[in-house]
Amino acid sequence: PLMKSPFFAIALKSTWAEGKTNEVKLLDDDPEVMNHYIHWLYTSTLPRTLFTVLAKLYVLGEKFMHPEFKNAVVLAILRETEEDVYPVGEAVNTIYEGTLKGSLGRQLLVDLF
């Protein structure tokens, strides 16, 4: 399932060090967020969770160049807003600081407000 992500498909090519060991070190990534990502890879589902976690998941999807995952996170964010709860503060900052201008995540925040 990791090979669905262009990031991992490239990193695990045999010509790269990671491809030779079949190991990619992700020291800067939050273990909780990685657990949700791995869960999604195997089940295509995301749990109901805090906007701060969803924001980190979206940024992780950007890092891993995984549009299908980012779309799933956007749908999870929209699902949460059906309860009239919206991302603020840290979640908004996480998406803005972790994405490029024009990203779907930024556009979603603009559309929500």
Automatic annotation (TrEMBL):
CDD domains: BTB_POZ_ZBTB_KLHL-like. InterPro entries: SKP1/BTB/POZ_sf (IPR011333). It comes from the Eukaryota. This is BTB domain-containing protein. The lineage of its organism: Eukaryota, Fungi, Dikarya, Ascomycota, Pezizomycotina.
